[in-house]
Design brief:
By secondary structure, the chain is mainly α. It has one domain. Helices cover 80% and strands 0% of the residues. The radius of gyration is 11 Å and the shape is globular. The model has no long low-confidence stretch (mean pLDDT 88).
Length: 59
């Protein structure tokens, strides 16, 4: 289960990804670690990245 502060941090990063703003390497690593242990975060990340990222990953 995610704490409120962690969920807000994740949503902030994902909103910046959606709007094509810069995201630091540290934030990307943070999302990657959480998405590997949380199906919810993994789904949020996939939605934020869009279908293009899925195509790239599957090539």
């Amino acid at each position: 289960m995610l704490s409120t502060s962690t969920r807000i941090r994740i949503q902030n990063i994902l909103d910046r990804i959606k709007s094509k703003q810069s995201v630091t390497l540290e934030e990307r690593i943070f999302l990657n670690k959480l998405s590997s242990v949380s199906a919810v975060v993994s789904e949020w990340l996939a939605t934020s990245l869009g279908p293009e990222a899925s195509v790239i990953d599957n090539d």
